[in-house]
Amino acid sequence: xxxxxxxxxxxxxxxxxxxxxxxxxxxxxxxxxxxxxxxxxxxxxxxxxxxxxxxxxxxxxxxxxxxxxxxxxxxxxxxxxxxxxxxxxxxxxxxxxxxxxxxxxxxxxxxxxxxxxxxxxxxxxxxxxxxxxxxxxxxxxxxxxxxxxxxxxxxxxxxxxxxxxxxxxxxxxxxxxxxxxxxxxxxxxxxxxxxxxxxxxxxxxxxxxxxxxxxxxxxxxxxxxxxxxxxxxxxxxxxxxxxxxxxxxxxxxxxxxxxxxxxxxxxxxxxxxxxxxxxxxxxxxxxxxxxxxxxxxxxxxxxxxxxxxxxxxxxxxxxxxxxxxxxxxxxxxxxxxxxxxxxxxxxxxxxxxxxxxxxxxxxxxxxxxxxxxxxxxxxxxxxxxxxxxxxxxxxxxxxxxxxxxxxxxxxxxxxxxxxxxxxxxxxxxxxxxxxxxxxxxxxxxxxxxxxxxxxxxxxxxxxxxxxxxxxxxxxxxxxxxxxxxxxxxxxxxxxxxxxxxxxxxxxxxxxxxxxxxxxxxxxxxxxxxxxxxxxxxxxxxxxxxxxxxxxxxxxxxxxxxxxxxxxxxxxxxxxxxxxxxxxxxxxxxxxxxxxxxxxxxxxxxxxxxxxxxxxxxxxxxxxxxxxxxxxxxxxxxxxxxxxxxxxxxxxxxxxxxxxxxxxxxxxxxxxxxxxxxxxxxxxxxxxxxxxxxxxxxxxxxxxxxxxxxxxxxxxxxxxxxxxxxxxxxxxxxxxxxxxxxxxxxxxxxxxxxxxxxxxxxxxxxxxxxxxxxxxxxxxxxxxxxxxxxxxxxxxxxxxxxxxxxxxxxxxxxxxxxxxxxxxxxxxxxxxxxxxxxxxxxxxxxxxxxxxxxxxxxxxxxxxxxxxxxxxxxxxxxxxxxxxxxxxxxxxxxxxxxxxxxxxxxxxxxxxxxxxxxxxxxxxxxxxxxxxx
Length: 932
Hints:
Low-confidence stretches: 225-233, 269-274
Oligomer: single chain
């Protein structure tokens, strides 16, 4: 639908145009038809580079251009075989780079779609959560505080609804919305109070709306060029590796120039150069100069790991997929790197450390204490007082308390099928409110019945500052009948308020007990607070309830006018059991040098009890309340923050302060959050983690990581995966660079000793493409070392190549060079056939680098500890490389291309032990390193 004038139509007229239903929404079949007709509800992104554009970019490299230039020179000089082989290898290498990039792009695109915001929609009369991109015109969507508006919509219901439209209008203050008004057709965008627009943010209240435009047809679609996908920046790790590649490139070019000059000097004396003209010199030494030039250029290409950025991108993308399988969606690539450095995880209690299946287990109605049986969201259970079963019909104060709990909640209890002949119910809405409506259903006060008897006429939604929610209800005749005697009077409306008991008690003048409405004395107030503290000490989450009678509906529904002179009704205590896997996950994180801190809005006693039960709180760990934080500066908190295990009763603003204090101590902080006000803390943290189930769109948009199961154990799993990815990147960097240094040393030392060139240019390129590349990719797919979560987090400032790694690389490169030159010398001295000697060292070097890839699978552990067969990709890459090696050695038409000859059994008797020597030396070096 492209019509943008629905604000000038009544709700009934919009329903007619859209051919939808105000209560049931669209049918699934109709939605599917419209999706095929109108397309997905998404803005068109800037298209990805085409295959040929990517291929062109592969040649946008100085060294690659130099190699192509060398091939052109070879063609001009008649060296067709060498030129053809070099061009073929360069093209193959570029194609592999393009394929790697395209695979990485596809992987990241899939993950972006997985992490895309969802929309709450009513279809077939049932509430569902679907990806926003699948919305169609006519869909009935639910809008709530903290969520982005998923499309352009016409409101059909609004309750204190306010929306931040600054992205479209520039208006800094949220705009109040009214569904019932019909506006002038020409009214400006900012004054369309009965409409909401894609990409704007619901900051307060709730509402329902009909989708009237999607994708490119929305208001934001008209200015889509402002929202085009930005260019992907390199991650910090990619920048480090790019810097490393450039540094190695400069050093390599210097060495290659030196090799070229040494080769010229070896061909003739300096004096002879001056006695001859340049033209005559070129004629005499034409072949040697061409060979030297191509060797130097080929060596430069072989020595510089120009493929590192592409390999890193592939590894990071595959790592993101691996995390997604473990229920953690990565929104930004740098997060993958930073996860491995995490030293502190600040985790919310509810839903992250616990099951997020609240169940009312006890309470106080008037002066009567009671308990409730049953667990989870099945409305099955009984009420007990002094071990005696009773029902709300027998106790008026309990009945009124449950009515308030159900009426002042937005959660819904719906049947979802049958299991073994028993009805199974599902909950839609907040877990805390779900516990309340389930408790009411256990007492026979089902939400459908209560909402019919007390239809809601207005509300003040819950927010973190007020810590309460208020609803106004019409008193129907049915409602007056079920209310206890002495409370309804001649009232026409009733106000229910729920919230923190200590806050609520300060607003109450009376309480309802077994003698009806009574004055709330200081003694009674203190007794209720004691009950509150006692229940909190049992690790319960507590809510208080109050009411007020009104003769008529208030003109304005504001907290200052409604939330006063209240009647306190009672307290309900809920328990959210800790997740079974949390204790072991906390211990695993502690072993890995990661401290877990609980950050919760619950009471100090409740938070302490849960923290002790799951092993989070240390014996000497502190529990600090938000009220104490308010009197501290960030610097003061930083002085004691490493001793604090639990932050209780904190507001979202306190979370930012906690993050800042931890960062001042040098910690790398991961912070969880789900609300709008959590966004600053998520942004300030090194790793912002949003809840995928309960999190708002704002939190998800701000976060680096989204937990699809809201589980703390998933954070630890993501940290482990982050460590594995970074370790794998270090492994293939170590492997590639040490191989390249070894190849340089072989050529350089041979030049100094006055030997013939041990390797032909095309052989060097083959080594770089096949022998180094395939195992390097396999190293990037390692599953991780068994002790990776037993090591302390690495420092953020640690370079990719540490001093220890550099020493190990030089050591292994020297051993490789000595081994290869020994083989070459023996073969050259024995046979005096340069092609055969070059073939022998080529085969030995290929096998040597393939064998050495196995020890490179771990920086510290011996091969037998990690298992020879545990990385199947290594077997595939090595197997493929071996097949290609024998093809180059044995297939007749390839032999002249690569300058190889068939080898004898005697040659292989020399090749095999010397090819194993670098791998055995690498294992020995790891053994000695562990002993030091």
